[in-house]
Amino acid sequence: VDLLARAGHLAKAYDLIEEMEVEPDFVVWGALLAGCRMYKNVELAEISARKLFELDPSDCGYYVLLSNMYADAGRWEDVERIRILMKNHGLAKPPGFSLVEVKGRVHVFLVGDKEHPQYEKIYEYLEKIYMKLQEVGYVPDNSSVFHDVNEEEKEIILRTHSEKLAVAFGIMNTAPGTSIHVIKNLRVCADCHSVIKLIAMIVEREIVVRDSKRFHHFKNGICSCGDY
To answer: Whole-model pTM?
Structure first.
């Protein structure tokens, strides 16, 4: 199922699940849901999510992922429906944060963080990086912003996601060639994934990000996850 979903053969993956002689568990449905997220198949994502809600109703990650897909599709009424469903189940999406260790000290960043002593320098560095990103063809993935705001506001929000702040800080405060290691408590968004790939290529660094699902090892503009 995972292989078929990764390759984009979502209907075949679903058919395989339906043909299983044993009851599919959360790993199987989770693999299909991840594929639906990658290939933006909302219809199958809804089926997968419903099964996952039944198997593990206490895991807010499935609710959030489906909500994010609805937001990506501009289905804001469904986003609100999932929010209410989570509230009724006593679930709440934890605030996203990223950790990076530099010179033996752990630094924590939130989205739009302005509490860090170096935040002004970090923002200035990111501005310079974004100019270089645009030169190599980067286009912001505004679908990674799950708020009903205009496109300009989405780009502003995207630029200060916690993992970008952590990566920038790590690069600024380590010697050239030093690898950067970041831990993110939630799944890395699609835009941050694309940006960090390009940053790794531009600054010629290896960047490792451990999010809630897997390790992402960025090197030379490529990620070990195969963009899955």
So the answer is: 0.75
Q: In terms of C-beta density within 10 A (0-12 exposed, 13-18 middle, 19 or more buried), how is residue 165 classed?
A: buried
Tell me if 197 sits within 8 A of 218, measured CB to CB: yes
- Spatial distance between the Cα atoms of 66 and 37, rounded to a whole number of angstroms: 8
Strands (E), 128-189: 180-184
pLDDT, tens digit, 9 for 90 and up, residues 126-159: 999 999 999 999 988 866 565 555 666 767 788 8
pLDDT, greater one: 155 or 124: 124
**CA neighbor of 129 nearest in space, from 162, 98, 165, 157:** 165
- In sequence order, what are the residues at sequence separation of 6 or more whose Cβ sits closer than 8 angstroms to the Cβ of residue 58? 89, 91
Cα 70-140-174 angle, rounded to 5 deg: 120
Q: What is the residue whose two structure tokens read 């506001």?
A: 153
| φ, ψ (nearest 5 deg) of residue 211 | -100, -165
DSSP designation for 143: G
205 in Cβ contact with 177 (< 8 Å) = yes
Q: By C-alpha distance, which of 41, 184, 181, 171 is closest to 109?
A: 184
Neighbours of 43 (CB within 10 A): 9
Q: How far is CA 161 from the centre of its chain?
A: 10
Q: How far is CA 81 from the centre of its chain?
A: 22
Instruction: List the domain boundaries for the chain.
Output: 1-89, 97-223
Q: Which amino acid is at 205?
A: R
Indicate the residue type of 204.
Answer: E
In contact, 162 and 98? CB cutoff 8 Å: yes
Torsions phi, psi for 179 (to 5 deg) = -75, 150
